[in-house]
Design brief:
The chain has 271 residues and is an alpha/beta fold. It has helices at 3-44, 78-81, 129-134, 142-152, 191-200, 221-226; strands at residues 50-52, 70-76, 85-90, 97-99, 120-127, 139-140, 160-164, 188-189, 204-207, 232-235, 248-253, 262-264, 266-270. Strand 9 (204-207), helix 6 and strand 10 (232-235) form a beta-alpha-beta unit. Helix 4 (142-152) packs across helix 5 (191-200). It is globular, with a radius of gyration of 24 Å.
Length: 271
């Protein structure tokens, strides 16, 4: 093939590629615009108020077994190196965190494999502060869910249903975990309640305490039924009093380490 022919072929190829790139870019921009329009429409339905449902934590944050949930070791120092890095040793179930199905079953879904659509969903808050004030091991019962539905309408499929017991206010005190004599005491869900939520089609539950089950549970009935059935839970939620019973959307920033049974998460809600 002559040099002129080669040059013409190269020019033709370059023009074809440029045309392809222009077409692809136009399609991409159109798709992005459609996505942004959808997102803006969804956001327009809220006031734009964002509430952080996450506790800041360190080695002193309460944990179920009483051991520090995180240790921080400074391995690079700004004064010496010009920047700072910490080595973190983290217990998966500390702070505001996720309980994945794998936490209470041999072969359940890991935290890395949770369905993304279930991490951004409607938030329904059931307030049991009145009975938790008199009973440190108060539970969300089936009747509490039925009363919520009667007052607020149906719980949407895929929703996160959170218990607000008022316990988050105790997080800096020993009473967050146990009574003065050392017995576990904090509210949680009853199995009859989570069985109903399974029927309804809720995707997750959340609590403002150390555990999905109440402190005096001996069999972890909620953990052993809710998690193995493919659902997940959120423990140690904060600031639920800043949200209405219905109408908020929760955003669960679940960690994504392979084969994880859960882990600390940044959880927020928009209303």
């Amino acid at each position: 093939m002559c040099n002129a022919c080669i040059i013409e072929n190269v020019k033709s190829s370059m023009l074809s590629r440029r045309s392809l790139f222009r077409t692809s870019a136009a399609v991409g921009v159109a798709a992005m615009a459609a996505g942004l329009t959808t997102a803006k429409t969804a956001l327009a339905q809220s006031s734009g108020k964002v509430v952080d449902l996450t506790h800041a934590y360190d080695r002193n944050f309460p944990t179920f077994d009483g051991k520090p949930g995180i240790e921080m070791e400074k391995v690079v120092d700004f004064a010496k190196d010009g920047y700072t890095i910490y080595k973190l040793t983290i217990f998966e179930h500390t702070g505001t965190h996720i309980d994945a199905p794998l936490h209470f079953t041999a072969d359940g879904t890991s935290v890395a494999d949770l369905e993304p659509a279930n991490l951004v969903c409607p938030l329904c808050i059931i307030d049991i502060k009145a009975k938790a004030k008199d009973d440190g091991n108060a539970m969300v019962m089936k009747s509490d869910i039925e009363a919520w539905v009667s007052a607020n309408g149906e719980i949407p499929k895929g929703a996160c249903v959170a218990m607000n017991s008022g316990w988050a206010a105790k997080v800096a005190a020993p009473e967050y975990r146990n009574t003065p004599d050392g017995a576990f005491a904090f509210p949680g869900f009853s199995k009859e309640a989570t069985d109903l939520l399974t029927e309804i089609g809720a995707a997750s539950i959340g609590v403002d305490t150390l555990s999905l089950d109440p402190g005096n549970s001996k069999d972890f009935a909620v953990h052993y039924s809710w998690l193995p059935s493919g659902h997940y839970g959120i423990e140690n939620l904060a600031n639920l009093d800043s949200l209405p019973a219905k109408g908020a959307t929760i955003f669960v920033g679940a960690p994504k380490h392979k084969a994880g049974t859960g882990g600390p998460a940044r959880v927020m809600a928009m209303v």
